[in-house]
Design brief:
Shape: globular
Radius of gyration: 17 Å
Strand content: 15-25%
Structural class: alpha/beta
Number of strands: 5
Function: Endonuclease that specifically degrades the RNA of RNA-DNA hybrids.
CATH superfamily of one domain: Ribonuclease H-like superfamily/Ribonuclease H
Helix content: 25-40%
Order of helices and strands: EEHEHHEEHHH
Cofactor: Mn(2+); Mg(2+)
Strand order of the largest sheet: 3-2-1-4-5
Pfam families: RNase_HII
Number of helices: 6
GO cellular component, one term: cytoplasm
CATH architecture of one domain: 2-Layer Sandwich
Family: Belongs to the RNase HII family.
Distance between the termini: 34 Å
Protein backbone atom coordinates (compact mmCIF):
# COMPACT_ATOMS: atom_id res chain seq x y z
CA UNK A 1 0.00 0.00 0.00
CA UNK A 2 1.42 3.37 -1.01
CA UNK A 3 0.42 6.55 0.77
CA UNK A 4 1.66 9.28 -1.52
CA UNK A 5 1.28 13.00 -1.09
CA UNK A 6 -0.13 14.48 -4.25
CA UNK A 7 1.68 17.37 -5.86
CA UNK A 8 -1.36 19.58 -5.14
CA UNK A 9 -1.58 18.70 -1.44
CA UNK A 10 -0.32 21.49 0.77
CA UNK A 11 2.57 20.35 2.93
CA UNK A 12 3.50 22.24 6.09
CA UNK A 13 7.11 23.38 6.32
CA UNK A 14 7.03 22.90 10.07
CA UNK A 15 4.72 20.54 11.92
CA UNK A 16 5.66 19.60 15.48
CA UNK A 17 4.09 16.15 15.09
CA UNK A 18 5.74 15.21 11.79
CA UNK A 19 8.53 12.63 11.75
CA UNK A 20 10.75 12.94 8.67
CA UNK A 21 12.54 9.81 7.42
CA UNK A 22 15.39 9.35 4.94
CA UNK A 23 18.36 7.09 4.31
CA UNK A 24 21.94 7.36 3.09
CA UNK A 25 24.17 4.73 1.56
CA UNK A 26 21.39 2.86 -0.18
CA UNK A 27 23.39 2.65 -3.40
CA UNK A 28 26.86 2.43 -1.88
CA UNK A 29 28.99 -0.56 -2.84
CA UNK A 30 30.27 -1.09 0.70
CA UNK A 31 29.56 -0.23 4.30
CA UNK A 32 26.28 0.32 6.05
CA UNK A 33 23.10 1.95 4.90
CA UNK A 34 21.94 4.46 7.48
CA UNK A 35 18.30 5.38 8.09
CA UNK A 36 17.31 8.34 10.18
CA UNK A 37 14.05 9.70 11.52
CA UNK A 38 13.68 13.14 13.00
CA UNK A 39 11.01 15.02 14.93
CA UNK A 40 12.14 18.62 15.29
CA UNK A 41 11.47 20.48 18.54
CA UNK A 42 11.75 23.80 16.70
CA UNK A 43 12.23 25.12 13.19
CA UNK A 44 15.90 25.07 12.16
CA UNK A 45 17.14 27.43 9.46
CA UNK A 46 19.35 26.19 6.63
CA UNK A 47 17.94 22.67 6.31
CA UNK A 48 17.77 21.14 2.85
CA UNK A 49 18.66 17.94 1.05
CA UNK A 50 21.98 16.77 2.51
CA UNK A 51 23.42 16.20 -0.96
CA UNK A 52 23.12 19.95 -1.66
CA UNK A 53 25.15 20.93 1.42
CA UNK A 54 28.89 21.02 1.90
CA UNK A 55 30.38 18.52 4.32
CA UNK A 56 31.18 21.35 6.72
CA UNK A 57 27.60 22.67 6.64
CA UNK A 58 26.17 19.16 7.13
CA UNK A 59 28.37 18.68 10.19
CA UNK A 60 27.27 22.04 11.63
CA UNK A 61 23.59 21.29 11.05
CA UNK A 62 23.98 17.74 12.42
CA UNK A 63 24.98 19.15 15.81
CA UNK A 64 22.10 21.62 15.81
CA UNK A 65 19.61 18.91 14.80
CA UNK A 66 20.61 16.43 17.51
CA UNK A 67 20.35 19.16 20.15
CA UNK A 68 16.89 20.24 18.98
CA UNK A 69 15.05 17.06 18.06
CA UNK A 70 13.93 13.60 18.98
CA UNK A 71 15.72 11.40 16.49
CA UNK A 72 16.69 7.83 15.71
CA UNK A 73 19.56 6.68 13.49
CA UNK A 74 19.70 3.05 12.36
CA UNK A 75 22.45 1.20 10.51
CA UNK A 76 22.11 -1.88 8.31
CA UNK A 77 25.40 -3.63 7.58
CA UNK A 78 26.54 -4.94 4.23
CA UNK A 79 25.94 -8.45 5.57
CA UNK A 80 22.34 -7.61 6.54
CA UNK A 81 21.74 -6.04 3.12
CA UNK A 82 23.20 -9.11 1.38
CA UNK A 83 21.24 -11.57 3.54
CA UNK A 84 17.88 -9.84 3.86
CA UNK A 85 17.88 -7.64 0.79
CA UNK A 86 17.74 -3.87 0.56
CA UNK A 87 13.93 -3.67 0.56
CA UNK A 88 13.63 -5.85 3.67
CA UNK A 89 16.16 -3.67 5.48
CA UNK A 90 14.26 -0.52 4.53
CA UNK A 91 10.96 -2.09 5.63
CA UNK A 92 12.50 -3.17 8.95
CA UNK A 93 13.89 0.33 9.44
CA UNK A 94 10.47 1.90 8.88
CA UNK A 95 8.89 -0.51 11.37
CA UNK A 96 11.53 0.27 14.00
CA UNK A 97 11.14 4.01 13.45
CA UNK A 98 7.37 3.80 13.79
CA UNK A 99 7.73 1.90 17.10
CA UNK A 100 10.25 4.42 18.44
CA UNK A 101 8.01 7.47 18.14
CA UNK A 102 4.63 8.19 19.75
CA UNK A 103 1.59 6.99 17.89
CA UNK A 104 0.03 10.45 17.50
CA UNK A 105 2.91 11.52 15.31
CA UNK A 106 2.67 11.14 11.57
CA UNK A 107 5.46 10.01 9.28
CA UNK A 108 6.82 11.15 5.92
CA UNK A 109 9.44 9.08 4.10
CA UNK A 110 11.49 10.40 1.19
CA UNK A 111 10.64 8.24 -1.80
CA UNK A 112 7.70 6.59 -3.50
CA UNK A 113 7.00 3.51 -1.39
CA UNK A 114 6.39 2.81 2.28
CA UNK A 115 7.19 -0.91 1.85
CA UNK A 116 3.72 -1.81 3.13
CA UNK A 117 4.08 -0.07 6.51
CA UNK A 118 0.72 1.53 7.34
CA UNK A 119 0.72 5.13 8.47
CA UNK A 120 3.88 6.20 6.66
CA UNK A 121 3.29 8.60 3.80
CA UNK A 122 5.83 9.12 1.04
CA UNK A 123 6.90 11.99 -1.14
CA UNK A 124 9.55 11.97 -3.84
CA UNK A 125 12.26 14.55 -3.10
CA UNK A 126 10.80 15.22 0.37
CA UNK A 127 14.38 15.76 1.56
CA UNK A 128 14.44 18.96 -0.49
CA UNK A 129 10.93 20.10 0.44
CA UNK A 130 10.15 19.24 4.08
CA UNK A 131 12.31 20.37 7.02
CA UNK A 132 11.95 17.18 9.06
CA UNK A 133 12.93 15.01 6.10
CA UNK A 134 15.85 17.34 5.35
CA UNK A 135 16.96 16.92 8.96
CA UNK A 136 16.70 13.12 8.69
CA UNK A 137 18.66 13.28 5.43
CA UNK A 138 21.46 15.16 7.18
CA UNK A 139 21.51 12.77 10.15
CA UNK A 140 21.72 9.74 7.86
CA UNK A 141 24.35 11.25 5.55
CA UNK A 142 26.64 12.50 8.34
CA UNK A 143 26.25 9.17 10.14
CA UNK A 144 27.19 7.25 6.99
CA UNK A 145 30.12 9.54 6.19
CA UNK A 146 31.51 9.28 9.73
CA UNK A 147 31.37 5.49 9.60
CA UNK A 148 33.11 5.42 6.22
CA UNK A 149 35.83 7.82 7.46
CA UNK A 150 36.43 5.48 10.39
CA UNK A 151 36.47 2.35 8.17
CA UNK A 152 38.89 4.05 5.77
CA UNK A 153 41.58 3.68 8.46
CA UNK A 154 41.12 -0.11 8.50
CA UNK A 155 40.80 -0.42 4.71
CA UNK A 156 42.97 2.44 3.35
CA UNK A 157 43.38 1.01 -0.14
CA UNK A 158 39.73 1.76 -1.03
CA UNK A 159 39.85 5.49 -0.17
CA UNK A 160 36.48 5.33 1.62
CA UNK A 161 37.19 8.74 3.17
CA UNK A 162 36.94 10.20 -0.35
CA UNK A 163 34.30 8.09 -2.11
CA UNK A 164 32.20 7.05 0.93
CA UNK A 165 31.96 3.62 -0.78
CA UNK A 166 29.89 4.84 -3.72
CA UNK A 167 30.65 3.45 -7.16
CA UNK A 168 32.93 6.21 -8.35
CA UNK A 169 35.38 5.51 -11.14
CA UNK A 170 38.28 5.49 -8.67
CA UNK A 171 36.50 3.17 -6.24
CA UNK A 172 35.72 0.71 -9.04
CA UNK A 173 39.35 0.85 -10.19
CA UNK A 174 40.50 0.11 -6.62
CA UNK A 175 38.13 -2.87 -6.44
CA UNK A 176 39.55 -4.13 -9.75
CA UNK A 177 43.07 -3.75 -8.34
CA UNK A 178 42.59 -5.09 -4.78
CA UNK A 179 39.40 -7.14 -5.02
CA UNK A 180 36.58 -6.68 -2.54
CA UNK A 181 36.81 -6.61 1.23
CA UNK A 182 34.38 -7.81 3.88
CA UNK A 183 32.61 -4.43 3.77
CA UNK A 184 31.59 -4.74 0.13
CA UNK A 185 28.06 -5.83 -0.61
CA UNK A 186 28.28 -9.19 -2.33
CA UNK A 187 24.70 -8.91 -3.62
CA UNK A 188 25.56 -5.74 -5.57
CA UNK A 189 27.13 -5.99 -8.99
CA UNK A 190 30.36 -4.14 -8.30
CA UNK A 191 31.93 -3.96 -11.75
Amino acid sequence: MKLLFSENELLPQYDENLIGIDEAGRGALAGPMMMAACKLNKKIDGLCDSKKLSEKKREELYEIIIQNSNYLILAFSSEQIDTLGLSACLKTGLMLIKRHFKTHSHFLYDGNTNFGINGIKTLVKADAKILQVSAASILAKVGKDRVMNFLAKEFPCYEFEKNKAYGTKTHRELIAKFGTCKLHRKSFKLL
